[in-house]
Amino acid sequence: MNTPAPPLTPDCFLQLMWLASPALPIGGFSYSEALESAVNAALVATESEACSWLVAQLHLSQSRADMAAIAQAMPAWASHDTSRLAALNAWVLTTRESSELRLQTEQMGRSLIEWLKNRYADDAAAMQQTSWLAAQDASYPMAFALAATLTGATARNALLAYTFGWAENMVQAAIKSVPLGQNAGQRILARLTADIPAAVEHALALPDGQRQAFSPMLAILSARHEHQYSRLFRS
Predict the structure, then answer these.
(1) Which Pfam families does this one have (predicted)?
(2) CA nearest 29: which of 92, 102, 94, 107?
């Protein structure tokens, strides 16, 4: 029989809310992950199109790639398996198909590492893991996996927090770039929130051989964004 997951304690819940908060100083607000380029190419021009775009990105890109990598990295952090973590980090970096997407994961990874150094300055074990990660060319998913592991959260709860934080940032990017009103943004966020649990379960179930980052249009639009004449976002 499967062992029931431990209950989510108030402290752990608050820590996960903190990691998912747009106020976390890691710069997620400055990236649109090629959504701005899709708007520029007239592929996304309405609330409905923005919603469809982000739902597709959730299931085809996030769930199959970064979310799955976070789920697999958390037990590796818990067991101090640095060879496994290095392999997962290398996979994440290899799947960045444009310089902007590579910049995003590296910059957000470094920023989260700095936050971890401040947050766990008095925790020798946490600082040892953070120092190891800082010595790598760290990606954001690996840094988030460490931050989530230090809260004591399960992988499922950590992914729910991670994905909701991603959804909030992307909805704000849609509001600014399409542009859309705040109520439209809330409707899109409601749709994403409804889809997040299934995306998390899919990510949790993926073995190594089924992780993938095959989103060719996203990669093409990201590459185009690097040369876009007018931009609000870094990606």
Answers:
(1) UreF (PF01730)
(2) 107
**Sequence-distant (≥ 6) Cβ neighbours of residue 113 within 8 angstroms:** 130, 133, 134, 138, 143
Best CA proximity match to 163, nearest among 119, 209, 195: 195
- The 10s digit of each residue's pLDDT in 36-94 is 999 999 999 999 999 999 999 999 999 999 999 999 999 999 999 999 999 999 999 99
Dmax (CA) for the chain in angstroms is 58
Which residues constitute the domain of residue 51? 38-98+151-222
Q: Which residues contact 59 (CB under 8 A, 6 or more apart)?
A: 195, 199, 202
Q: In the chain, what is the straight-line distance between the N-terminal and C-terminal CA atoms, in Å?
A: 46
* Model confidence pLDDT, tens digit, residues 9-52: 999 999 999 999 989 999 999 999 999 999 999 999 999 999 99
Whether residue 114 lies inside any domain: the answer is: no
Non-local CB neighbours of 124 within 8 Å, separated by 6+ positions? none
Number of domains in the chain: 1
Tokens 């997620």 — which residue? 28
Q: Within a domain: residue 187?
A: yes
Q: At what angle do helices 66-78 and 82-94 cross, to 10 degrees?
A: 170
Residue 35 identity = L
